[in-house]
């Protein structure tokens, strides 16, 4: 008698958001359970991790994008070639939330009428004293776009597994 193979599926996710919102920090925490204090701006990086979800092995490929306008051209293939998106903004930066609708519109523009899975993530929830974005503002935006919303912390891992 042979052993039963666990079904495996591959999912390609892309981290989107302006610079310094914590995309790389969230990605590195999810992949390696480490928090990096010294931030180096990302050009683009790809990571792979296997996770088990309800007896299914899911191979998660995460592309961590730059987030800076200087690298805007490299983002086009990422919008087209991924199964889903994690759109990140910083709870300590109102401007990062203002950029979210533009990112969501870009996903729709590049993907056509496809309903791409998107999760809106407010990062840095641990920085309570520096919070600049009220929860209600992010919730309203998520409801308008009909996407789930989570608040996370790359530093403390709060809601990290749920966001991926």
How would the blueprint of this fold be written?
Elements: E1 8-16, H1 23-32, E2 44-53, E3 56-65, H2 72-80, E4 84-90, H3 94-98, H4 100-111, E5 118-123, H5 135-145, E6 149-151, H6 160-163
Parallel strand pairs: 1-3, 1-4, 4-5, 5-6
Antiparallel strand pairs: 2-3
Please tell me about this protein's structure.
It holds the Pfam family Ras. This is Small monomeric GTPase. InterPro entries: P-loop_NTPase, Small_GTP-bd, Small_GTPase, Small_GTPase_Ras-type. It contains six helices and six strands. By secondary structure, it is of the alpha/beta class. The chain has one domain: P-loop containing nucleotide triphosphate hydrolases (Rossmann fold, 3-Layer(aba) Sandwich), CATH 3.40.50.300. The chain has a six-stranded mixed β-sheet with strand order 2-3-1-4-5-6, sandwiched between helices. Helix 5 links the parallel strand 5 and strand 6. The radius of gyration is 16 Å and the shape is globular. 34% of the residues are buried.
Determine the number of helices (DSSP H or I, runs of at least 4 residues): 6
Mean pLDDT: 85
Helix fraction bin: 25-40%
Largest sheet: 6 strands, mixed
**Low-confidence spans:** none
Kindly estimate the percentage of residues that lie in beta strands according to DSSP: 25-35%
Number of domains: 1
What is the CATH-assigned architecture?
3-Layer(aba) Sandwich
Shape: globular
Going by CATH, the homologous superfamily would be P-loop containing nucleotide triphosphate hydrolases
Strand order of the largest sheet: 2-3-1-4-5-6
CATH topology: Rossmann fold
CATH class: Alpha Beta
Rounded to the nearest angstrom, the radius of gyration is 16 Å
The total of beta strands comes to 6
Element string (H = helix, E = strand): EHEEHEHHEHEH
């Amino acid at each position: 008698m042979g052993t039963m193979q666990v079904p495996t599926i591959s999912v390609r996710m892309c981290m989107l958001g302006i610079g310094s919102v914590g995309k790389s920090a969230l990605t590195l925490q999810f992949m390696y359970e480490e928090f990096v204090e010294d931030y180096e701006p990302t050009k683009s990086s790809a990571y792979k991790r296997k996770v088990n979800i309800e007896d299914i092995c899911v191979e998660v490929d995460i592309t961590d994008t730059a987030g800076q306008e200087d690298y805007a051209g490299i983002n086009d293939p990422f919008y087209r070639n991924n199964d889903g998106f994690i759109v990140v903004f910083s709870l300590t930066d109102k401007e990062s939330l203002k950029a979210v609708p533009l990112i969501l519109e870009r996903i729709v523009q590049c993907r056509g009428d496809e309903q791409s899975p998107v999760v809106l993530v407010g990062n840095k929830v641990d920085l309570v004293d520096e919070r600049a974005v009220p929860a209600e503002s992010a919730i309203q935006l998520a409801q308008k776009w009909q996407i789930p919303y989570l608040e996370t912390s790359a530093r403390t891992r709060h809601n990290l597994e749920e966001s991926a």
